Amino acid sequence: MRTRAAVALEAGKPLEVMEVELDGPKAGEVLVEIKATGLCHTDEFTRSGDDPEGIFPAILGHEGAGVVLEVGEGVTTLKPGDHVIPLYTPECRECASCLSGKTNLCTAIRNTQGKGLMPDGTTRFKMLDGTPIHHYMGCSTFANHTVMPEIALAKVREDAPFDKICYIGCGVTTGIGAVINTAGVEIGSTAAVFGLGGIGLNVIQGLRMAGCDKIIGVDLNDDKAEMAKKFGMTHFVNPSKVDNTVQAIVDLTKTEKDHLGGVDYSFDATGNVKVMRDALECSHRGWGVSVIIGVAPAGAEISTRPFQLVTGRVWKGTAFGGAKGRTDVPKFVDWYMDGKIEIDSMITHKLTLDEINHGFELMHKGESIRAVVEF
Ligand code: NAD
Ligand code: AHE
Ligand code: ZN
To answer: How many angstroms is it from 333 CA to the middle of ligand 3?
Structure first.
């Protein structure tokens, strides 16, 4: 079939919206009509050329929602008409990782996914001249139609609006999941969140749900503070306006009984390795846990004095908020529909596919939280 997609032809170039050819689903695969997709900073990271796994030409996008149109041979858990959210972290329920009970990082198809291919090692997308186009994160939601493995689709309720629940495909689940699954934040904790964008705001929302007492937001952009306050931020630090960001956070958490200070939990949602260091070092001696969410460019490395860890701080990372997609994503959709989590106000811009590059401009200018393309 033919469909319309925004294609990343080369690193660093704007996406080009065009008609592409899409082959139907093979065994174990599903054809999905994408109804809406969010623009996550990770799409921009890959588009820009910073991603060591970036392959071009590719159809980016991994934060979508849509409807099943057709299923391939052997597909048993989905049928045409089902509403689905694509999962860049699939859940096969059979691999060693899924069975371990210790991680959400299903390994069933990670190898081919990282090469921009379907599990059989081929691509379903091509240009009208026959040039193959790579898949991205196993999703390619910047296309009106895509083909995905059955294990990489979460079936969700049919009354949930696509233009909101697409955000659960990455940002919402990553942020809230980082708090609940990865950090395991307890009631009464203190926390610092670095980067108050589409991910950081959901970390803040998760911290409020977990019953955090003090939630310190950190961002270079003062304009991000207003929205963060609405989601539960209690204090704001702009690193460009203080001498020492770590000290500023430590000072905010000192009490009469605790002269040391430091947050119980910190989260990096910037992808900047210097910020990751600050996030670790502002966490409390003896028990502070710092969670890396941000994705850093090729070649970037984190560093700190080992003494920071010797003295009890723990450095962790999280992908998709530690969520098991087919199991957890439908629950996130229920939480949204039941009013337990807020999404609508974070979707600051709605675009058509033709306007997708404007969405990346808004991200760069710091003017959007989430821009969503509706098909
Ligand atoms: P975003 O662009 O919406 O937000 C980033 C925020 O960080 C912005 O508000 C920006 O002003 C702020 N910022 C940038 N540099 C800063 C600095 N030095 N100090 C303080 N604040 C700074 O991006 P997003 O969509 O929220 O994504 C955030 C990061 O999370 C990206 O690196 C993205 O790739 C990553 N991510 C990771 C996962 C995962 O599963 N681990 C999932 C989604 C996104
Ligand atoms: N390709 C990059 C790494 C990108 C990365 O870490 N991706 C996250 C999800 S970001 C979603 O917005 C992830 O899920 N990682 C686990 C995995 O298996 O990719 C690189 O540096 O090579
Ligand atoms: Zn993402």
So the answer is: 17
